[in-house]
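User: My notes are a mess, but here's the protein and TZP's SMILES. Can you give me a structure?
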Amino acid sequence: MHSVNGLYAITPDTEDSERLIEQVSAALDGGARVLQYRNKGSDPVRRLWQASILASLARSRDALFIVNDDIALARAVQADGVHVGRDDAAIASARAALGPAAIVGASCYNSIELARAAVAAGASYVAFGAVFPSGTKPGAVAAPLQLFAQSADLGVPRVAIGGITAANAAQVVAAGADAIAVIGGLFDGDDVAERAATLAALFHN
Ligand SMILES: Cc1ncc(COP(=O)(O)OP(=O)(O)O)c(N)n1
Ligand SMILES: Cc1ncsc1CCOP(=O)(O)O
Ligand SMILES: [Mg+2]
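Assistant: No problem, the inputs look usable. Here's the predicted complex:
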């Protein structure tokens, strides 16, 4: 299993499963290496259905599959892991529920101290953001790109999230991020495969 790096696609919150599957397929075709299922609005049946399909899709393309927030759903679809933030389960609980091989990602917002604590608690990767203003999450904490240089010794991949697009992603990679997590900059258009290829290419060196 590869680690978290490169283009990290996060699903838009939608009820339209058919379009979601098409869009995610295109993102994987374009080179996304990690896929996170993030859906805050749908009922449990739709969430289970969408997550199951997307888990198989990711597996068939050798991409990692991570579920946002929901440890039980991650277990139900045999995801590679879960992503948790400050309002979610603790990192140690996620690790205990999913086992030593699971990927447990942790949101660290704009804080190196949170990142060090997350690694000590067993996180497999940390995420800093929002590195740019996010249309998807307008209230997100702003995180400076300097965090990536400051966290180079953490020993786990560092993911950047928030407002990342083809126009600004190169700056994020140059700052030292190991992966870029993208929702709007990838899925807010009809050219998802092309956008994914452009973003993924920033990691081919
Ligand atoms: C890769 C990645 N980074 C950060 C987040 C945000 O998690 P959280 O702070 O728990 O906010 P929600 O996504 O749950 O609204 C993420 N999901 N993925
Ligand atoms: C979940 C989350 N956490 C910080 S910003 C954000 C949303 C990222 O979406 P986008 O790539 O559309 O800004
Ligand atoms: Mg969360």
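The chain has a mean pLDDT of 97.
User: Great, I'll file this with my notes.
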